[in-house]
Amino acid sequence: MRPGDRGRAVRTLQKRLAELHYDPGRVDARFGPATQHAVVGFQKVNELSPDGVIGPKTRRALRDPEVPKPLVPKGPDERVEIDLDHQVLRLYQDGELRLISTISSGSGEYYCSEGRCRYATTPAGNFRAYRRVSGWDRSPLGVLYNPIYFNGGIAVQGSPSVPTYPASHGCVRIPMHTAEIFPDLVKRHERFYVRD
Predict the structure, then answer these.
(1) What pLDDT shows up at residue 140?
(2) Is 79-195 assigned to CATH 3.30.420.10?
């Protein structure tokens, strides 16, 4: 199965991904970008090549998936964990895993903006959500969709471009369809744990 496919098998895939806490978007039997992003997230967690295609290895893993281990095993019941190594985000509610998403974090590239130069990194550490914007937020480096800021100007934010590798100036990009639901799942001042 691959992007563009339709039918019962795609619907079954979407239901399975949702059951495993990945966000395939609407369960509509269409293998579109939302389903592809969910497949990529699943492949990253299961240490498969993140190509967004359901081949034999991904099919086997869907039957017997890896259970993601928490980055912060004794963390609070409500938290967001950002795994820079695997490029995935996990959200916990009531101590239970509720959402896993593919991400794209800081690229490590050197850049200059408004007379300041720096490396595009997403620093590891423990943070709290401190500001959120509903809709588009304009910044010196571009526009962010439904951002939740947790470390200075660094936010988890929706983006139309979420490659499988680090590519941002430092923000944590999530797919647009996931950015629609993410703010409703994150409590005010929720803890964000970023690990590399």
Answers:
(1) 87
(2) no
What are the extents of the domains in the chain?
Answer: 8-63, 79-195
Q: Where are the alpha helices (DSSP H) in 3-32?
A: 8-19
Q: For the whole model, what pTM was predicted? A: 0.95
CB-CB contact of 91 with 38 (8 Å): no
Q: For the chain, what percent of residues have pLDDT higher than 90?
A: 96
Q: What percent of the chain has pLDDT over 70?
A: 100
Buried b (16+ CB within 10 A) or exposed e, 98-134: ebbbbbbbbbeeeeeeeeeeeebbbeeeebebeebbe
Q: Is 8-63 in CATH node 2.60.120.200?
A: no
